[in-house]
Write a structure and sequence with these properties.
Length: 398
């Protein structure tokens, strides 16, 4: 059974491969930032509609989000499987995270599993979620809050990086904007009349640096001053910094958040400024499923003859989905060149033929993992048990 299913999966993805390559290159060559991915969204929606699938647009109030839904010809009374596509780029370096490849990997897995359900007469529902703004505000979190993923039994997505893994425990991540409000004054004639918002930003940056001494090794804090004043001869009346904090577990993020907020408040107090903190949605850690992850890694290893690499660092809005749903965030090796994500070199590799070949292989691999869940009840039970265990243990990390 599993061998013929494997052939159906490979056939569906190979058949679509040249079309997927074209989609990937157009998205890559026209990088669009978070929430501005209009052309990429349109391209994917057109492709799905031309392939005969229904697509719902403007999902969760996001103009560049979509959901395509397929109901098996054998009926809907089976598993509800979801795949995620991302397609946002990074400022300055374009597709330096390879989201053009993530976009087509989602489509590839969707096509493969709809074909499997159809040919093998397996009941169920398959959805492809077009999830914008992963690099900025976390479109998946907004979609989750709007109930877009309700009823999902299993969610999958793939991401290119250096090395492959079925067990990426990503970091929780919270980004904040901190504004200081002071009083402008001539910096030479009457500096004593001013309240220096630029100094507040500096104190905040330095104190965050000092705080690092007492952070756990796997925690991260990093930030920039985006506005430190307008002119050297004016005491700045306004300053702004952007800061991100990361921890391995959600319970730790609350602790680090409290300490960080105290630092920002202290800088205001020290300078006499007032301040305002605007927090983004928190990205939670990715709760990998060891049963799904192991099968994914076994198939990947049979191709690459290299062990998996479970690196640390980095965050994804898929983490919030993984806290709720059984899921796999599979990592695959971009092109065998080991360039890191978020670099111009990664951008270049993300349009290579080798990256495309590896993307389609990873999609076939992940689709085979999904197919196993569909046809092997014992395996699916193990997957569910592993998810429950993970959920029970995730709160023990203070
Ligand atoms: Zn990224
Ligand atoms: Zn990414």
């Amino acid at each position: 059974m599993i061998i013929s299913v494997g052939k159906i999966i490979a056939g569906a993805i190979d058949e679509a491969s040249s079309d997927l390559r074209k989609l990937s290159l157009v998205i890559h060559d026209n990088p669009e930032l978070a929430l501005e991915e209009k052309a990429a969204c349109q391209l994917l929606v057109d492709y799905l509609e031309n392939s005969g699938f229904e697509v719902q647009r403007n999902v969760a109030g996001l103009s560049t989000a979509f959901v395509s839904t397929y109901v098996s010809s054998a009926g809907a009374h089976g598993l509800n499987i979801g795949f995620c596509s991302e397609y946002d780029a990074l400022p300055g370096i374009g597709h330096g995270c390879g989201h053009n490849l993530i976009a087509i990997s989602g489509v590839a897995m969707f096509l493969a599993i709809t074909r499997v359900m159809d040919k093998c007469r397996i009941p169920g529902t398959v959805k492809l979620y077009g999830t914008p703004a992963e690099e900025a505000i976390g479109g998946k979190i907004t979609m989750l809050d709007h109930g877009v993923f309700d009823g999902t039994d299993l969610l999958m997505m793939l991401h290119p990086t250096a090395g492959y893994s079925g067990a990426w425990h990503s970091q929780c991540c919270l980004s904040m904007k901190i504004e200081y409000f002071g009083k402008a004054s001539h910096a030479a004639m009457a500096p004593w009349d001013g309240i220096n918002a630029g100094t507040a930003a500096n104190i905040a940056m330095l104190t965050m640096g000092a705080l690092r001494e007492q952070l756990k090794p796997d925690w991260r804090t990093h930030g920039i001053i985006t506005n430190g004043g307008q002119a050297a001869n004016v005491i700045p009346e306004y300053s702004c910094i952007e800061y991100t904090i990361r921890t391995s577990w959600a319970s730790e993020l609350d602790i680090l958040r409290e300490r960080t907020l105290r630092v920002f408040e202290a800088a205001a107090l020290a300078t006499g400024c007032t301040h305002k903190v605007t927090e983004e949605f928190a990205y939670l850690d990715n709760q990998d499923n060891p049963v799904l992850g192991q099968l994914y890694e076994e198939i990947m290893e049979s191709e690459y003859h290299l062990p998996p690499e479970r690196g640390v660092g980095g965050s994804t809005d898929f983490g919030n989905l993984s806290q709720k749903f059984i899921s796999l965030h599979g990592m695959f090796d971009l092109a065998g060149t080991r360039v890191p994500n978020h670099t111009v070199e990664f951008t270049k590799e993300a349009r290579s033929a080798e990256a495309h070949r590896r993307t389609t292989f990873a999609a076939k691999t992940a689709a085979r993992v999904v197919a196993r869940c569909l046809v092997d009840e014992g395996f699916w039970k193990q997957v569910k048990r592993a998810h429950e265990e993970r959920q029970q243990n995730s709160g023990d990390h203070k």
